[in-house]
Amino acid sequence: MISDNKEYEVVRLLIEKGFHIAFSESCTAGLACGRLVNVPDASKVLNVSFITYADDAKVKYLGVGKDTIKRHGVVSTEVAAEMALGVCKETGAEVGVGITGIAGPTGGVPGKPVGTVCFGIAINGTVKTWREQFGDLGRNEVRDASVIFCYDRLVDLLKTFGE
C-alpha cells in the first residue's frame, strides 16, 4: 500500500498493530469513515461506525453523558472524547474516533463560531482531544478540513502508539 493518502497509511498501521477502528461522526456525517473504505483491505480493520448527528443519538448509541452535553455543549472536546470512548465500547474496536462541530453556515455561538470542530481519538482506552477552528470556509470545506485533520492525527498517534 503506497500512497500519499493518509487513509492508506492508517489502514496499514491498523493492520500492522492488529487494531480495529470505529468512527462516531456528527458534523462530518460519515465522511471520515467513507474515506477509510476507499482503501483496499479496509474491511480488515472496520466493522461498524456511527453517524450520531442528534444529541439524543450520541447519548443513546455512544453513552455520551447528558450532563456532559449540558455542561460543555455538544461541540466540545469532552463530548468528542466520550464519543470516541463510547464507540470503542459499543463496537469492541481498539481505536475510536469522535468528531463533533459546527460546519455552518449557521449554528455558531459566542466562543464557538462556525468552523469549530472538536475531535477525540481513543486507543485502547486512552483518549486525546483537539479543538480546531477552521474558520467560516463553507460547510463542505469545514467538513473536508475536519477529515484531513482527523487522518493526520490518526497517523501521528498510530505511529507512536506503544513506543
Outline of the structure:
The protein is α/β, with parallel strands linked by helices and 163 residues long. It has 6 helices and 5 strands. The mean pLDDT is 95.
Could you explain the architecture of this structure?
This protein has 163 residues and is of the alpha/beta class. Helices cover 43% and strands 18% of the residues. The longest helix is centred in the last third of the chain and has 22 residues, at 139-160. It starts with 5 loop residues before the first helix and ends with a helix.
Radius of gyration: 15 Å
Low-pLDDT segments, ≥5 res: none
What's the number of helices? 6
In whole angstroms, the N-to-C terminal distance is 23 Å
Helix content: 40-55%
User: What is the number of strand segments?
Assistant: 5
How much of the sequence is in beta strands?
15-25%
Structural class given helices, strands, pairing? alpha/beta
Mean pLDDT: 95
What characterizes the major β-sheet?
Answer: 5 strands, mixed
- Principal-axis shape equals globular
Order of helices and strands: HEHEHHHEEEH
Strand order of the largest sheet: 2-1-3-4-5
